Amino acid sequence: MQRVSGHRQKMEVFTLIFPALFWLTVFFAIPLLSIVVYSFLKKGLYGVLVWEFNLENYARFLDPLYFKVFGRSFAVAVLTTLGCLVIGYPLAAWLATRPTRFQGILLMLLMIPFWTNFLVRTYAWIVLLAREGFINTALMSLGVINEPLGMLYTQPAVIVGLVYGWVTDMVLPIYATMVGLDRSLLEAAQDLYANDLKTFTRVVLPLTMPGIVAGSILVFIPSMGAYVTPDLLGGGKVDMIGNLVQRQFGSAQDWPFGSAISCVLMAIMVIGTLIYFRISGGRER
Amino acid sequence: MKTGSSRQRTLIRIGQKVLSLHALFSYLFLYLPIIILIIFSFNNSKSVFRWAGFTTHWYLDLFSDPRIMSALKNSLIVASASTIASTIFGTMVSIAMERYDFFGKLPFDALLYLPIVIPDITMAVMLLVFFVTIHMPLGLHTIIISHIAFNISFVSVTVRARLASLDPALEEAAQDLYANEWQTFWKVTFPLLLPGIIGGALMAFTLSLDDYVITFFTAGARSTTLPLRIYSMVKTGVKPDINALSSLMMMVSMALVVLSLLLQRKGGEGVTIQ
Fold first, then answer.
1. Same-domain pairing of B62 and B161
2. Which residue has the higher pLDDT, A195 or A104?
3. A17 in contact with chain B, both atoms CB, cutoff 8 A
4. Which residues of chain B have a CB within 8 Å of the CB of A124?
5. Which domain range does residue B157 map to?
6. Does any domain span residue B45?
């Protein structure tokens, strides 16, 4: 890495970063600051803004109506994270123990659905879970059930959709810590404890803990801020923070309150990201 | 290792079987919903879910629906424009970030990373608030502006990964051979960087084509893109034509992602002087 010195080099670096710096300042940083400002304003009659500093929007979170939505979002995000961990940890362990030449292709198979159309992948679960959907039709024609099960528009449906959407984000960091495990440590542990369970709880688990924490944060943040999944798979019955925000900018026309909710969501994200970097940053570089 | 504990070896073997079975089910979990969706998009029945023979007619219907064709046109305009701009900006900034140390680099790095981690809904509403505050009418241009904002970050992550894997000795060798900086860049660095740049561009194109939340908030009433069209179709009731449109988007999106990942993997191996 070169330390910038001299006028010519300074101009060069400035030219290189200018377009991105300009774009992200004008169309990201300033909009971000503007909702922070909005969150301290007040909604007047007919959705007109009142320029008067106040903390009312933040105080409204204590209203049981909104507090419940926050509580639900938190519960859904925690359960989604646990679900991803239960699926993701053993999967990461399996991946890390495959022959090296297969690992690349297996990882790619894991990432392909992850990067493809989130909306369509969520819609696919409507096809599966609906009243006349694939699962109900299949179970009824097999004679397992007589009445279709009400699976869609429930909290578990939202959690399944979120786990489906984000499980890859759990697998990748755990896989990274597992690949980095020193085999000789495992062998030494097995010599010491001569017991797989102890080897796992005393050696493998602590060593892969950074991957678990990183993966959990990567899953928890988008789950907490989810909007499409609770809207489509919750059908208005499983409202989360994202839906609350959308309503303030839609039917409720209360932008200051909507901005305040977004700011809280962002604060959660920033704290999570900082913890993530504290944990993973040290090893990456 | 302890010898002679055949019981333990059996346990390990069973454990590995369970682990493999779990992996199989996990991959099925990831792919089955997509596969079922695609199969049912060929279902010759008005009711979506009961199989009644093979047909391609839902796909043919799509192409004669003017609302879908105009959404397709809008989607392609938005994705192309935002991909071109974000690829250029993202590549330029990556070179500066990987090659130089400069004042204010750390906070800028954070700004560059934020659009990736910020929840979609937050980015969506803050852009809406911004556009309305500065009295910019909403339309295709506001969608493009917003997509560039998040795509710069995704392109730069991809290109920076490629840059970091390049052997600096290659550039030094070029300069030893009296190439100036400009020549070194275009003749050595850029060709080596190209798989990363194309990989990043494909990723940006896919993300732009697939985005719903940010597009929904920054689109004007008359600038509907394909995901917006799908969403309103899903909301008004599940009909077989949604399956066809969704499957089509899924397949295009998947093809682009596979291509992008392959290019990035090629990038991951890096190039070194033997």
1. yes
2. A104
3. yes
4. 33-34, 36-37, 246
5. 57-269
6. no
Q: Tens of pLDDT along B193-203?
A: 898 999 999 99
Under 8 Å between Cβ of A264 and A61: yes
Query: How many distinct structural domains can be found in chain B?
Result: 2
Measure in Å the smallest separation between the Cα of A32 and chain B Cα atoms. 6
Residue (of B153, B146, B119) closest to B220 by Cα position:
B146
Same domain, B141 and B7: no
Average pLDDT over residues B235-259: 87
B163 & B32 share domain:
no
Are both B115 and B163 inside the same structural domain? yes
Q: How confident is the model at residue A223 (pLDDT cuts 50, 70, 90)?
A: very high
**Closest by CA position to B87, among listed B214, B193, B164:** B193
Query: Which member of A133, A221, A259 has the closest CB to residue B117?
Result: A221
CATH class in words for A58-284:
mainly alpha
By CA distance, what is A277's nearest residue in B?
Answer: B110
Q: Using CA atoms, how far apart are residues A218 and A276, in angstroms rounded to an integer?
A: 8
Q: How many CB atoms lie within 10 A of CB A242?
A: 29
What is the CATH number for B200? Answer: 1.10.3720.10
Nearest to A263 by CA among A81, A55, A68: A55
d(CA A179, CA A95): 9
Q: Cβ contact (<8 Å) for B92 and A16?
A: yes
ipTM, 2 dp:
0.88
CB contact under 8 A, A34 and B130: yes
CB-closest option in A125, A255, A269 to B117:
A269
Mean pLDDT to the nearest integer, A158-187: 90
pLDDT in tens, B48-84: 667 788 888 888 888 888 999 999 999 999 999 999 9
Whether chain A has a CB inside 8 Å of the CB on B265: the answer is yes
Within this chain, do residues B119 and B16 fall inside the same structural domain, yes or no? no
Specify the range with the lowest mean pLDDT, choosing from A73-87, A262-276, B68-82, B169-183.
B169-183
- B134 shares its domain with B257: yes
B19 and B84 together in one domain: no
Q: Are residues B26 and B72 in the same domain?
A: no
Q: Nearest-CA distance from B154 to chain A in Å?
A: 12
In angstroms, the CA B120 to CA A229 distance is: 12
Work out the burial of residue B139: count CB atoms within 10 Å of its CB; fewer than 13 is exposed, 13-18 middle, 19 or more buried.
Answer: middle
Residue B260 sits at the chain A interface (C-beta within 8 Å): yes
Nearest CA in chain B to A191: B1
Query: Nearest C-alpha of chain A: how many angstroms from B267?
Result: 13
Q: What is the DSSP letter of A182?
A: -
- Asked if the Cβ–Cβ distance from A20 to B156 is below 8 Å, we say yes
Is residue B50 situated within a structural domain? no
